[in-house]
From TrEMBL:
Cofactor list: FAD
Keywords: 2Fe-2S, Flavoprotein, Iron, Iron-sulfur, Metal-binding, Oxidoreductase
Record-annotated 2Fe-2S ferredoxin-type domain positions: 238-323
Coiled coil: none
Stated name of the protein: PDR/VanB family oxidoreductase
Classification via InterPro entries: 2Fe-2S_ferredoxin-like_sf (IPR036010), 2Fe-2S_ferredoxin-type (IPR001041), Beta-grasp_dom_sf (IPR012675), DmmA-like_N (IPR054582), FAD-bd_FR_type (IPR017927), FNR_nucleotide-bd (IPR039261), MRET (IPR050415), Riboflavin_synthase-like_b-brl (IPR017938)
Keyword Nucleotide-binding among UniProt keywords: no
Residues annotated as signal peptide: none
Annotated ranges, domain FAD-binding FR-type: 13-113
Superkingdom, taxonomy of origin: Bacteria
Amino acid sequence: MTATAEASAPALHDALELVLADVTDQTPSIRSFTFRDPAGNGLPPYVPGSHVIVQCGDKANAYSLTGSGVLPDEYTISVLRVDDGGGGSATLHRLAPGARLTVSRPRSAFAPVATARHHLLIAAGIGITPMLSHMRAAAEWGHSASLLYSYRQGEGAHLDDVRELCGESLHECTDRSSFLAALAVRLGEQPLGTHLYVCGPQGFMDTVLHAASEAGWPASRLHSEPFGSADLDPGQPFSVRLSRSGTVVDVPSGTSLLEALEDSGLKVPFMCRQGVCGECVLPVLRGTPEHRDLYLSDAEKTANNSIMCCVSRSRDAGLEIDF
């Protein structure tokens, strides 16, 4: 996963100050970065599929960790360089070992289901990064897993890693037709109790999830990890009442609640603007949020008493927040 932010970022709370220990080219446009504690201490563990937010100058991005998460002494991420992007990937690509960066503690939004009989992992492009974490954990714990990996010829990141980890359970595709054929086979041959995980561009994930649904897979066994909120639909307009002042703020279609509050002259803490860091969470007093973030847990989303205002909206015409 790679989520981008384009605004000046405040300092990360309770973050780690780490040193860039190693840089490895995966492809001409994808580079891996390994961070360690400057004093050589171990780092906080994490569950497979977790991400961290890396602050680079005045930019902050969320990136998937590629390790298994067990007793880590280093964090490794892989970053696709987007020269005209607003998230700082180009700046990261210019860093050399020895650079000091602020890195958030790991956050889980794409963890494997412990009770799954088998894990079917499907990735495209840079979406391989959380799957690498899943595969490493599966190998360490002896869990059943297989990987369907789609990438452009000559642009497959971490190929040596996944080939060594997966062996015969890896299927590689370098064109759309062969991927669709392999997907149809994989969806039809999995044992009961299999959970499917997909990460890649939104169109790719939509294709996989639709095909799985058509093949009879229950929604509870489908899990996706989007790159960010860039592909979210503009949503319906709604209004928000601010309980402390009684002010009502209109949120038009295509405008986030965070943007609407800022346009009204209000200051809301934020970091990633992609629903992954948790910085802009606001308490909800009335109404039902339409949760689009990757930060709140399923239980927190069900409770409907908080909202990530950078990406989430309202299912009702009106919402009231404690602000």
